[in-house]
Predict the 3D structure of the following.
Amino acid sequence: MKLKQIVQATIAATALIAGVQVQAAEVEVLHYWTSGGEAKSVAELKKMMEAKGIVWKDFAVAGGGGENAMTALKARVISGSAPTAAQIKGPSIQEWGKEGVLANIDAAATEGKWDASLPKVVSNIMKYQGHYVAAPVNVHRVNWLWVNPEVLKKAGAKAPTNWDEFFDAADKIKKAGLIAIAHGGQPWQDATVFESVALGVGGPDFYKKAIVQLDPASLTGPTMIKTFDTLTKIKTYIDKDAAGRDWNLATAMVINGKAGMQFMGDWAKGEFTAAGKVAGKDFLCLTAPGTEKAFTFNIDSLTMFKVKDADQQKAQLVLASAVMSPEFQEVFNLNKGSIPARAGASRAKFDSCAIKSMDDMDATSKSGGLVPSFAHGMAIDSAKAGAIQDVIAKFMNSTMTSQAAVQALAKAAKAK
Ligand code: BGC
């Protein structure tokens, strides 16, 4: 134990929850926030907990999209030593709830008036059988295209607003000797591109029918064929070293002008920000072609596991309250690239990309364009999501035809 931790462990905590004084305790938090921007974000939570006299035990498992982290989590829960909290989101929260291993944190939610502070689309996901079991940290938007304007200028290209302009810009960047599309060949990144393309090609109603409701006719119909045809074209603009590349290294290629564009959620903005880059000047956040009127949401949350000791239970409630505090929601999201999960958060310190995200989330929640991200575990259960992701990865890494892909997709959608 470091000296600082020993001191903290011996000082009575000052945090108050529901009028109860919390004694020094520990929270162990499993997450996969290990890139530059992500690490800065989670460090704010650690700081906040330590300021409340609670020891932060970091359980970081590297690997974008969280697959490695979920494997580590399963092993820990099976062995009877679940962490205090883990970065789990969407329908997976329900899957863990069914296992009977999640903690009820209604005490923190009632005290903090969460029902009144959260949009329904967020609070519904945080509850299992009507009780809060998770605390939301943010709302990420996935359907972004990150662009280096300097690269566009060099190539004589303009910022694309539709697919024709996108491929025109990609051609020009390629001709200028640069990489048009920065990508990392990992299944979850392939899925991230796929869902933005499906949304851009087919619109939100198609996306919902095909990817959320898994309607067989939509999964195999002409719009899905066109989605895969578009992906085939996209593949020709990705460099040959993309296999296995981490997402943040792909983002770095856009940051340093090696590549022009990247399809990625706004955790990528955390990398631009950490590199001291300014939105609208050093980089552009454009909605992925054809998706201006839609918003794929990806809500990160810390899901709470049952802990035995009374002190640990109190510390867990303090953690939940801290996560939902306006201060944390602001500082975390300024670093993470996302926007606060709390409704009505102050916009003063956020950049133009975040403001656009806030406005578009409001607008799309009224228009029907607000849709859950499939690639980031918000749309369907994990077995089906995994099987569909495998099909997309296979498509991206082979010469599979669009016809074969849609048939495989429909089959994967039945996975149990
Ligand atoms: C998570 C983000 C994370 C990203 C890259 C997404 O699924 O929601 O918090 O930054 O993966 O690991």
Residues 32, 38, 64-66, 140, 247, 267, 298, 300, 376 surround beta-D-glucopyranose (CB under 6 Å). Confidence is low (pLDDT under 50) at residues 1-23. The domain at 141-297+356-412 is CATH 3.40.190.10 (D-Maltodextrin-Binding Protein; domain 2). The chain is about 50% helix and 15% strand.
